[in-house]
Write a structure and sequence with these properties.
D-Maltodextrin-Binding Protein, domain 2, 2 domains, about 50% helix
Length: about 325
């Protein structure tokens, strides 16, 4: 009887010990993270602003986290292809995404059918950086400044290119054409760099692109810079006026980029990513790179980031309905 009692007690101890091991395992995993390379998914083609920022960030995060952060581009459908891939990835911190602001605030309001739910399928880690846009035209257009362009555009059927339907480039262009009261046809691309290349070639008439991606073309004389969409002039193009200075008082439009991970990624891991990002953008190397690319660091905590996304989503919902913008 005594031996049987001891045997049963031993079995219970083994079961209890096993249960504690299972409970402790995820915690230990999160605490030891990362132990292998991390994939940073970029939802647009190489050469665009999201890609440029992502590669700068990946380089610095690799140093801070002690593991390689590998950039992988998955363009298409306004970022939704990449978003679906990340949402369906294991929630272990080894697949994260640098999303454009439009993906998180515009796409849920623009696309009637989505394979994912942006509000439920991701955990928002932090906003990383923001930057102004640049209104520029093809060198073929016979205009020298924004006022001339607006007057010219009102008499022509011009077109403009973007990084895709609903992208922050597209939404900035819709905002500008509405404010300037000019008609224009939208030509969506799979990435900002492709649209810029066609702007240089004169295949499209104008763009309101991220300054980061467009400044090099402007400095090289390949496109005509007319105005920046920030309230202050840019250090990158100090001779280019703001839209407000050039004829539309108070106009402002900026793009931003934030890190997200699959839902249910352990908080311990997302906090490590957040801390590493804060450290990365605070480094001298990253500060210099951001400044050279016309970007400003905007790290905020998860709660503030979620609040920002919700507020902007409400605003864009009104714009999309008011402008009757659709993916059709």
């Amino acid at each position: 009887m005594f031996k049987q009692l001891i045997s049963e007690l031993g079995k219970k101890i083994v079961v209890i010990a096993g249960a504690f091991t299972l409970l402790a395992s995820p915690l230990a995993f999160a605490q030891n993270w990362p132990t292998k390379p991390i994939k940073l998914i970029i939802p647009f083609a190489a050469g665009g602003t999201t890609d440029i920022l992502g590669r700068l960030l990946a380089q610095q995060l690799s140093k801070d986290l002690g593991q390689n952060v590998i950039v992988e581009n998955k363009p298409g459908a306004g970022g939704n292809i990449a978003a679906e891939y990340v949402a369906q990835s294991p929630a272990d911190g080894y697949t994260i995404m640098l999303a454009s602001g439009s993906m998180l605030t515009v796409n849920p309001n623009l696309y009637k059918k989505l394979p994912i739910n942006y509000a439920k399928d991701f955990v928002y880690i932090t906003n990383v950086a923001s930057g102004p846009m640049l209104i520029s035209t093809s060198p073929k257009l016979p205009v020298k400044n924004l006022a001339e362009f607006i007057a010219y555009a009102k008499t022509k059927d011009l077109n403009f290119g973007s990084a895709g339907i609903g992208s922050q480039v597209h939404m900035a262009e819709e905002s500008f054409t509405y404010s300037a009261n000019i008609p224009a046809t939208h030509v969506p691309y799979k990435g900002e760099s492709a649209a810029l290349n066609d702007l240089v070639a004169g295949q499209i008439d104008f763009m309101v692109g991220n300054l980061t991606a467009a400044a090099g073309f402007a400095k090289a004389g390949q496109i005509k810079p007319l105005a920046v969409t920030s309230l202050k002039r840019s250090k990158q193009l100090p001779d280019v006026p703001t839209v407000s200075e050039a004829g539309i008082p108070g106009f402002e439009s900026t793009g931003w980029f934030g890190l997200v991970a699959p839902a249910n990624t352990p908080h311990t891991i997302t906090e490590k990513i957040y801390a590493a990002t804060v450290k990365a953008v605070s480094s001298d190397a990253m500060k210099t790179s951001l400044d050279l690319n016309g970007l400003t660091a905007v790290v905020n905590n998860q709660k503030d980031f979620e609040t920002q996304v919700k507020a902007e989503s409400i605003g864009w919902e009104k714009v999309i309905k008011g402008r009757n913008i659709s993916t059709q």
